[in-house]
Amino acid sequence: MLTIKHELGPISTFKGLAELHEAIALQIHYYNTKRIHTALKTSPAAYATSLKTEQSKRDKVLQNSVP
């Protein structure tokens, strides 16, 4: 299992705190939007989109079934 510490590499490679901060922010963004999560079998962003799409479909079905 990879951790952010392993994915960023040695802290000594960053020139300063600002560069480290930016690298952490970019890594978190990547993790939450593009990185495939094994439990979801997709990225969290894609999973959230699919949930919203499914909920929207269910809402339309319910609206059409109410007299």
Topology as a string of helices (H) and strands (E): HHH
How many strand segments?
0
Total helical elements: 3
β-strand amount: under 5%
Rg value: 19 Å
Distance between the termini: 52 Å
Major beta-sheet overview: none
Low-pLDDT parts are none
Q: What structural class results from the helix and strand content?
A: mainly alpha
Mean pLDDT comes to 87
Q: Shape from CA axes?
A: elongated
Approximate helicity band: 55-70%
Describe it for me?
It is a single chain. The chain is mostly helical and about 70 residues long. The chain is about 65% helix and about 0% strand. The protein contains three helices and no strands. The radius of gyration is 19 Å and the shape is elongated.
